Amino acid sequence: MTAVPDLHTCFKTLIASPSISSLDPSQDQANDQLIQHLHHWLTDLGFRCEVKQVISSRGKQNLLASIVPPDSRGGLLLSGHTDTVPFDQQRWNSDPFTLTEKDGRWYGLGSCDMKGFFALIIAALQELPLTELKRPLYILATADEETTMNGAKAFAAERKIQPDYAIIGEPTGLRPVYMHKGHLAKGIRITGRSGHSSDPELGLNAIEIINLAISQLLKLREHLKQGYQESVFSVPYPTLNLGHIHGGDAANRICGCCELHLDLRPIPGIPLPDLEVLLRQYLMPITDQYPDSLEIFNLYPGSEAFKGDASSDWSQQVAALSGQQPEVVNYATEAPYLQQLGCQTLVLGPGHIAQAHQPDEYLEMQYLQPTVRLIKELIYNACLI
Question: Where in the sequence is the domain holding 226, given as residue range(s)?
Fold first, then answer.
């Protein structure tokens, strides 16, 4: 009927299309090869495909494929990201860009996180009467989820479509996820004044100032713990971790510079801008006492927390189809951005997050047919009846 290849060939082709995202320009890669494959296959299946370059992404692209029946609206969005994290070749037992089958698993970079989801969507689409759709069906492939999430952010800002429902195919073990925490990574740099340790008055010790800043950060941590709660999480409050500190160069020198890196994980209801305001407020006594000595900077782009509705019709319908109750997770996804389209949003896909970002990443083959079947049922319920 079409020139679209079978599941194994699609899977193999996507794994063989490098699309690493990295904040390090020397490791960052384009995703155009993978986008071209999806464009070709989805066009052959009857979708209208649009490719758009993502601003601030070193030339990366988003792809939106659509079938919109006349006089219809709403429908379903199936979404995934095209990029992978970097890899350490020496820790892999096979070529990361070659699909390798062993012990009931398909190994390859992106096999579960999350190129494999696209191959499974293609397989499901080939078994559906797409000419009989009653409501819109959209397939979205985004750029740079692993770094900036700029692909999803840009697409959400355009408000190009208004689906009723969205599924983001991250590896959840085919369990519907309706809520997760956000993530914010900040650096604090104290610039003091170096000098000889024999006369402390000649310098301004950055280590001593960072110690004062840490005291304020611990007060912020307690404020977050006491003031914000979401009981469904295993850790039911926002967390603040002091993860890395470095300063000074010799015992007999007054430390002129000291840097602290911290990790904040907000629960839903605390937007990242509000969290940054709190951080600056708690550090204000330090900036008042030592003007121009304290700098706060981003280590890498943050991601918002996400909260859907576990009791919504969509959540309950997906729970019934998957045989799994809606749950929460601690990792971040593109869900809070795609939710801005106004759709009921869930995260659900094959494989487990424990395999993501690991050497010898794999997807268990036992997920293949159940995922194809579930995708077909989701499309049928959202778009065909």
Answer: 183-303
Quick check: is 230 catalytic?
no
Domain identity same for 279 and 355: no
Is 145 tagged catalytic? yes
Of 319, 78, 309, nearest to 176 by C-alpha is 319
Note whether 237 and 290 are same-domain residues.
Answer: yes
Give the CA count within 13 Å in the CB-facing half-sphere of 181.
Answer: 24
Q: How far apart are CA 175 and CA 349, in angstroms?
A: 7
What is the domain count for the chain?
A: 2
State whether 134 and 13 are in the same domain. yes
Considering the domain boundaries, does residue 1 fall inside one? Answer: no
Domain boundary among 280, 303, 326: 303
Tokens of 246: 């470095």
259 plus 279 within the same structural domain:
yes
- CA dihedral (45, 7, 380, 176) in degrees, to 10, reads -130
Indicate whether 34 and 49 sit together in one domain. yes
Percentage of the chain exceeding pLDDT 70: 99
User: Is the pTM value of this prediction over 0.90?
Assistant: yes
Q: Which position among 145, 146, 170, 334 bears the catalytic label?
A: 145
| Parallel, antiparallel or unpaired: strands 253-254 and 195-196 | antiparallel
Q: What is the pLDDT of residues 87-135, one digit of tens each?
A: 999 999 999 999 999 999 999 999 999 999 999 999 999 999 999 999 9
Return d(Cα 247, Cα 379) in angstroms, integer.
55
User: In this structure, what token pair is assigned to residue 346?
Assistant: 């869930």
Q: CA 238, CA 95: separation in Å to the nearest integer?
A: 39
